[in-house]
Design brief:
The protein is of the alpha+beta class. The chain has five helices and 16 strands. It has a single domain, classed as phage-related protein like fold (Alpha-Beta Complex). The longest helix has 27 residues.
């Protein structure tokens, strides 16, 4: 032991400062794997937030002498209700701090610092992992509907507040490599074909405009049971297409990435276009990122407690369906 002997309170303060610094470092360094599937925005201190849909693709009109406007009442919007969240906290026995005091340093508390740091990754990742819940339930209204009042994955979509005829729900051919290739091409064609209409007032002159322009940045989300097949589809040059060994060039090579997560329906999979950072199939409205709660009493008085408590709470956020035209579900029996 060297230097001035530290008090119990000083040991706690050293631990808190180190734990908070490490927590913040872990939080900032993590890039959630599923971040590309959702559009996350800060809502401010409100119970629920609204995101406006119509103005994502505003129509260019002929100038007629006066500027046209839409009121908020005329804008199609999606509402997201916020829910408070927390992560199970950590109790550190008082005796651990007294041992650190005897050693005059907090080296022996390193595992607790790492455990608190792990909460940072859980906190940052949690909203994005919930995206999968919405994807899997997207063919129902379990988590609500899209702004057009249709399920996220449906055969009757429109870029409007009412039903249409565009489908992002496909029936798959099966789970062989050739079948996945065929279904993947159908899914890409669907993404390319989604549209919105202009000149609605004159149905005879209604024009279609693409919703997904430019190069698509495709992500396949699938169960582990399909992951090796999609890895093959992503990397091999030729695909065997018949029982006689006939093959064809794999036009899907190097055109998508794969995210693997356990799925309830292991044969179903999803194709997501993440090319536009502002337009995603799922929206995350973040009211409060939360914070790490450390013991706030007089540090010396903490010596009388049996354990010191650390927790991450006061998170508040909500998720909702966004751009249906950015996702396709391929459903297999």
């Amino acid at each position: 032991m060297s230097g001035t002997q530290k008090s119990f309170g000083q040991i706690v303060e050293d631990f808190n400062q180190t734990a908070i610094t490490n927590f913040n470092k872990q939080y900032e360094s993590l890039e959630p794997e599923l971040a590309g599937l959702a559009f996350k925005y800060n809502s401010g201190n409100v119970a629920q937030s609204n995101i406006f849909i119509n103005h994502l693709f505003s129509t260019v009109l002929d100038w007629k002498g006066t500027q046209p406007y839409k009121s908020i009442d005329d804008v199609t919007k999606q509402s997201i209700v916020h829910k408070e969240k927390c992560i199970e906290g950590l109790e550190i026995p008082n005796r651990e701090f007294k041992r650190a005091q005897s050693a005059n340093n907090i080296t022996g508390l390193d595992m607790y610092i790492k455990s608190i740091g792990a909460q940072a990754k859980q906190a940052k990742d949690a909203p994005f992992e919930e995206v999968l819940d919405l994807l899997e339930a997207g063919a129902s209204d379990t988590y609500g509907t899209c702004f057009d009042n249709q399920n996220m994955f449906d055969t009757t979509h429109a870029f409007d507040s009412s039903a249409g005829s565009q489908s992002n729900l496909l029936t798959g051919a099966g789970a062989t490599l050739a079948q996945l290739s065929s279904d993947m091409k159908r899914a890409v064609a669907a993404l390319r074909g989604f549209y919105y209409s202009v000149d609605k007032a004159d149905s005879a002159n209604k024009k279609k405009r693409m919703l997904n322009k430019g190069n698509l940045n495709l992500v396949v989300v699938c169960d582990p049971s399909l992951s090796s097949l999609f890895d093959d589809l992503r990397t091999i040059e030729n695909i065997v297409v018949d029982s006689n060994g006939g093959s064809q060039t794999n036009s899907l090579r190097n055109t998508f990435s794969v995210v693997v997560r356990p799925m309830t329906d292991t044969n179903d999979w999803y194709v997501i276009d993440t090319s536009d950072p502002l337009v995603r199939p799922i929206m995350i409205s973040m009211e409060d990122e939360g914070k790490l709660i450390t013991p706030q009493d007089n540090p010396e008085a903490l010596a009388n407690l049996q354990a010191l408590r650390y927790a991450y709470n006061q998170m508040s956020y909500g998720l909702a369906y966004g751009a249906w035209w950015k996702a396709v579900k391929v459903s297999n029996a």
